[in-house]
Design goal:
With about 130 residues, the chain is an alpha+beta fold. The protein is about 55% helix and about 15% strand. Strands 1-4-5 form a three-stranded antiparallel sheet, sandwiched between helices. A two-stranded antiparallel ribbon has the order 2-3. It starts with a helix and ends with a strand.
């Protein structure tokens, strides 16, 4: 889990601010900013490792949605992969399409994905959408 402070520091750093600039902005020491950034990255890496482990043990399944995929085809692929994995989804196709439209709003143009994304299907039928991880 990320703390609000870690998330704030990492967001500002991702915007190009130096640790010193972030420290001034948040009224922290540069060392505090460094520690918050380091622990935030460690927490993110742990989360990614947990997802990798879950996928490796069959607890979750990754679906890669490639650039240019139509939103309707993405919904069909999610259903197809869930069926192939024996996962009973907690959402209808209408709900899945709505989730895709909401979560991928910035990444859809003309009904097509403008960038690759990853969908995680959990064994309990929950669906999560994330940016593609290399």
């Amino acid at each position: 889990m990320l703390t609000e402070r870690q998330l704030t520091v990492m967001h500002l750093r991702s915007q190009g601010l130096t640790q010193s600039e972030v420290a001034r902005k948040l009224k922290l020491t540069r060392q505090d900013v460094s520690a918050l950034e380091r622990s935030g990255i460690r927490n993110l890496e742990s989360a990614f490792d947990a997802i990798d482990l879950a996928c490796g043990k069959g607890v979750a399944r990754r679906i890669r949605l490639v650039r240019g995929t139509h939103i309707l085809d993405a919904g069909r692929e999610i259903l197809k992969q869930a069926d192939a994995s024996g996962i009973r989804l907690q959402r209808s196709i209408v709900d899945i399409l709505q989730l895709l439209r909401i979560e991928l709003q910035e990444s859809i143009y003309g009904g097509m994905l403008r960038e690759e994304r990853e969908v995680l299907l959990l064994y309990n039928g929950h669906v999560r959408i994330a940016p593609l991880r290399e």
